Amino acid sequence: MQWTLEQLRQFVLTADSGSFSEAARRLGRAQSAVSTAIGILEADLGLELFDRSRRNAQPTDAGALLLLEARELLRQAQSLDQRALSLSAGNEARLALALDEALPYSAVNTLVREIGERYPDLELTLLNGTATEVAEYVEQQRAQMAIHFVRGPISARFDQRHIGTVAQGLFAPGGHALTQCHPVQRTDLARFRQLILHADDIDETAFSPKVWRSDSFYSLAQMVADDLGWAILPVHIATEESYRQPLQQLDCPALGLPRLSVRVLWCQGWQPGATAQWVLARFTQLLR
């Protein structure tokens, strides 16, 4: 069989428009040229695609079945064209991102949705984990780059770029004794258990002699909601509505809590392509 994509396009357009003359008008060709092209296609396939005994161009039963196949082939051809154009423009064919599970969900959700809209042919892999885990995914070459909260220095094998900050605060469960302190003093904090983020043997500063540790901000927030202590948490995590009881932010000027820094890292020698560069620029905007 020697049929071409152009013959399939004329076949589909004729079926959609309901007549050879209308298909020819849309293509800017003579009706005889379209009729001849479809006649050659029918001869090549060994089937009549249209019932010519009717006034309008109605597909035969066989033509209706092949019309489905023709549409799919044209869709695949268009996808091939789009992917080739994307690759020739310097975009990656595949991108694997490792994302800190504690990053603002709204920013991550918006980023992923916009990647799908902007790069429909990209093969995207998303890996989630703690700040330590996502760095390991890059080191293991499971991901090309990771976006996570800064947790101390990184290995010399990585390059990094700081892309934004996220607010953090001091939180206790509603009704906790600390909520009655206005403002909270460091001596007040020392009276109650502190829940501390712990990863890579790096702890937050302890302001209480009694501490529990976890490698997940979400785990810490849940423990605060269960009245197990107080914690320093990203504000967007602490203010979610999924906890057993609301978490209350405390005013403690003496701590002078800075904003949490967010960075992206990748293995030395890897050069972000056009898609990866757009992802970094867009996520930087979203964090603002």
TrEMBL record:
The record's section on SUPFAM superfamilies has:
Periplasmic binding protein-like II, Winged helix' DNA-binding domain
Domain HTH lysR-type, which positions?
A: 3-60
| GO molecular function annotations of the record | DNA-binding transcription factor activity; transcription cis-regulatory region binding
Q: Which CDD domains match?
A: PBP2_LTTR_substrate
Keyword Ubl conjugation part of the UniProt annotation: no
Recite the UniProt keywords alphabetically: DNA-binding, Plasmid, Transcription, Transcription regulation
The entry's protein name is: LysR family transcriptional regulator
Q: Which organism is it from?
A: Comamonas antarctica
